[in-house]
What we know:
This protein has a single domain (65-450), classed as Porin, CATH 2.40.160.10. The chain has one helix and 22 strands. The protein has one helix at residues 2-23, and strands spanning 59-73, 112-116, 121-127, 135-143, 157-166, 170-177, 205-215, 220-229, 245-246, 251-260, 266-267, 274-275, 277-290, 297-311, 322-333, 345-346, 353-354, 356-367, 372-383, 395-409, 414-428, 437-450. Strands 1-3-4-5-6-7-8-10-13-14-15-18-19-20-21-22 form a 16-stranded antiparallel β-barrel. Strands 11-12 form a two-stranded antiparallel ribbon. The chain is globular, with a radius of gyration of 29 Å.
Amino acid sequence: MTKKVMLQIAAAALLAAPAVAQEVPQTPPPTYNCDFEPACEVAPGIYGKMASPVTSKFKLSFGGFVKLDYIYNSVNLGPTGGTVPSPGIAALGTLQPGGIPKSSSAAGQEDQTLMTARQSRFWIKVDGPALLGAKTGALIEADFFGAGSGNEGANLRMRHAYGTIDWKNTQVLFGQSWDSFGPAAASTLDFGQGATTGNPGSPRVAQIRVTQKVALSENNSLKLIAGVQNPPQDSNTATGAAGETWGGKVNLAGQAMLVSKALGVAPGFWGLPMNSFTAGFFGLYGNQDVAGNAEMVDSWGYGFYTFVPVLKSSDGKSRAMTASFEGQTYMAANMAFAHATAHTLIGPAGDKSPAKGYGLFGQAIFYPTQNLGFTAGYGKRSAYDYGSYAGVANFQKYSSQIFGNVAYDLNAAIRVAVEYQHLKTLYGNNTPGTSDSGTANIARVAAMYFF
């Protein structure tokens, strides 16, 4: 009897063992605070688990890219070199603002090689609380091209900083963002994106604008943009010298575009967005005082833009066997601040008038596979009516570029690319004994890490 009871007790104990084992607390893995000692849990030089949550009162997301450029220029393009092939202001006949050095100048007879990572950038996006049935958000983006900075001591620079309020068909944007004038950007590897050769996309300006979508049919809609912008054509340090501008009203700018899904989508800038067919008009108007003038002068511009999916994506996402064309043309006056014109004002003191010019641009993008992309394009910015530039020494008759690049994505983060650019500036009313043009041949190799 005793033996039987003992066996029953033993059996009960064995059956209960798993339950008992489950109730015994397990020893947690060791944790470390590596904020001040990065090597506290790993070998020296290897930064193990350092991730920690980033919090805000609203949802945040981070992104950007690291970019390294190796650049060879056939001429000396100044301190930024071929990263931004738009030389800074120097003596006339040498480096022209936005122009190529004359072939007879010292800079035109020097070549240049540099490596830089200053085009790297990052952004922070915010998803905020709802407002009157709309989504709210914000974005801040910066790069390292701050004034007076060099490769080793690059300074932070604000690019975008804006808030948005989005309803189904309406958006209100306030802050600093792209100018509404000239929506096309050359898909070059450099930092200029064709700004001085038919793509007047600079500068990013403080503004408030409204974007309205108007549905026409299932596949077609209108995109209407209207806004007021800071007048960067003003001189904030005006001394009263003849020809200086100041006291401008805000610029008015807008777009009216037809957007259609009927042709599908194809890759846009750098092959990153997938865009639908778009075609329409854009424009800008403003005016300001000029020292010595009895009347204010106008700044204005208007143009046409289009994006065409030539070979559409098979599923709306894949780039394999896709192709697109993008182009624009414009007419402008006194818009050197946006690089739409090379000059600001012309004429004698007391009777200054806006310098007029025009631009045109076109590019094609082709992706034979998801990861391999080819881009080629041409752009030109020209003065209008050369005869009106009498007395303006070394004015830019035109600046143009031909470019082509090839990019390959090694994975979702790393891209390698090569590019060739041929840039030319033709000058008028030249200094005696100097050449009337400058050309530059630029070769570039780039490596990028998107995050």
